[in-house]
Q: What sequence folds into this?
C-alpha cells in the first residue's frame, strides 16, 4: 500500500482549492489565481512554495514548464478520500426523479433500467451504466478438494445451474506440506476439509461467500480460516456476474464534449470498450469498494487505478445494488478524472439504493 502523505490544514486547503478550480475550468492553476480567487490570506510566494511541495509529493504536476499545476491521479485520490463532503441534496434529487419518472406497474425491467440510466446520465453529465438485474443468483451445489500433484491441490465448485469453477493452490497454503503426513493422510485431510466446506456452504448463494464470518468456524479448522476467506472471495468475484448480463449505457455524446476526449484515438478506444468489450468492462463495474478508511458504498477507480488501458484517462464510480441480501447488479458512472466527485458519489449511491429498495 502506498503511504499517504501527511498534509497540514494549509496544504490540504491549497490542494483542495487547486483541484476544485481545475475541475471547474480545465485550466492549469497557478499561485496568482489562488491568491485572487480564494481567501487564503497568504502571499503568492507562500502559495507558490506550497504548490511546489504538493508537486514533490506527487499530488500535482505541471503539464508544461511555464504552466500552472494540475492534479495527478494520486492528488485526486487524496481529494476524494480526505477533502470532500458528498452533496446529499443531489442524491435526494435523483431519488425524487426516479420515483416520479419510473412506472413500475406498467413498464418492463428493460424499459425501467433504460430510463433510470438515462436519468442518471442527464443529471451527472457523464456516461451512466446500469446492469440488468440478476434475479436468480447461483447457489453452491458441491465443493471438492482434489490433490493434483505432490505440491498442488485444486478446489472445484459446482453450482445449482451446473456451472463449474476451479482454483489451483499450493499444499503449503493449506499447511499440509509442513505436516510430514503420508500421502494417504493428506488425502484424508482433504476429504475432511471438503466435507466441512460442503456442510457450511452448500445452498448458499455465491455472493454470500465474501460476507461469511470465518472467525466462527469450528476450532479444528481455524488454521484454514485466512486462506479460505481469500480463496472464496476470489471465487465469489469470478461467479457473481455473468458475461451475458446486458449493460444499459447513456451519456456518451455529452461526456465526449469534455476537453479530455479531444483526441480521436482516445475516443475510439473508449467507444470500442463500451460497445464491443462489455465482457471486460462488467467485472470492473461489478466490484465492491476496497477502501479501508471509509465506509462508502461506492468503488472509485481514478485514472491509472483502472485495469483497462482505455480507461486510464477516466474515473469510474460504481456501486452494487441488491435483491434482498444478494448482489443483483451494478450502477456506474464513467467520466474524466476531472470529475465533480462531490456530486457523482451520492448520485451513484442513491441510484443503487433506490434500485435495491425497488427490487426488494
A:
Amino acid at each position: 500500500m502506498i503511504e499517504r502523505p501527511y498534509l497540514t490544514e494549509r496544504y490540504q486547503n491549497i490542494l483542495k482549492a487547486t483541484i476544485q478550480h481545475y475541475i471547474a475550468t480545465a485550466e492549469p492553476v497557478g499561485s496568482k489565481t489562488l491568491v485572487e480567487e480564494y481567501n487564503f490570506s497568504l502571499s503568492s510566494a507562500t502559495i507558490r512554495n506550497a504548490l511546489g511541495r504538493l508537486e514533490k509529493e506527487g499530488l500535482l504536476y505541471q503539464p508544461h514548464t511555464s504552466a500552472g499545476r494540475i492534479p495527478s491521479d494520486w492528488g485526486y485520490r487524496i481529494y476524494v478520500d480526505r477533502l470532500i463532503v458528498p452533496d446529499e441534496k443531489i442524491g435526494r434529487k435523483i431519488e425524487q426523479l426516479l420515483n416520479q419518472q419510473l412506472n413500475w406497474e406498467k413498464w418492463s425491467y428493460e424499459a425501467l433500467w433504460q430510463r433510470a440510466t438515462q436519468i442518471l446520465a442527464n443529471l451527472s453529465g457523464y456516461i451512466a451504466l446500469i446492469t440488468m438485474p440478476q434475479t436468480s443468483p447461483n447457489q453452491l451445489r458441491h465443493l471438492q478438494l482434489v490433490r493434483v500433484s505432490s505440491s498442488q491441490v485444486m478446489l472445484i465448485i459446482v453450482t445449482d445451474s451446473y456451472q463449474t469453477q476451479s482454483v489451483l493452490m499450493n499444499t503449503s497454503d493449506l499447511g499440509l506440506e509442513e505436516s510430514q503426513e503420508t500421502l494417504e493422510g493428506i488425502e484424508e485431510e482433504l476429504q475432511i476439509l471438503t466435507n466441512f466446506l460442503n456442510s457450511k456452504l452448500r445452498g448458499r448463494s455465491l455472493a454470500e461467500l465474501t460476507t461469511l464470518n470465518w472467525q466462527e468456524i469450528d476450532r479444528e479448522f481455524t488454521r484454514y480460516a485466512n486462506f479460505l476467506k481469500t480463496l472464496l472471495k476470489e471465487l465469489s468475484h469470478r461467479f457473481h456476474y455473468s458475461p451475458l448480463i446486458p449493460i444499459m449505457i447513456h451519456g456518451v455524446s455529452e461526456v465526449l464534449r469534455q476537453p479530455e476526449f479531444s483526441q480521436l484515438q482516445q475516443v475510439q478506444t473508449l467507444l470500442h470498450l463500451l460497445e464491443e468489450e462489455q465482457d471486460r468492462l462488467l467485472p470492473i463495474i461489478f466490484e465492491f469498494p476496497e477502501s479501508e478508511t471509509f465506509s462508502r458504498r461506492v468503488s472509485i477507480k481514478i485514472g491509472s487505478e483502472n485495469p483497462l488501458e482505455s480507461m486510464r484517462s477516466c474515473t469510474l464510480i460504481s456501486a452494487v445494488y441488491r435483491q434482498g441480501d444478494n448482489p443483483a447488479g451494478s450502477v456506474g458512472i464513467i467520466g474524466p478524472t476531472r470529475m465533480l466527485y462531490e456530486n457523482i458519489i451520492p448520485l451513484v449511491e442513491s441510484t443503487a439504493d433506490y434500485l435495491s429498495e425497488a427490487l426488494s
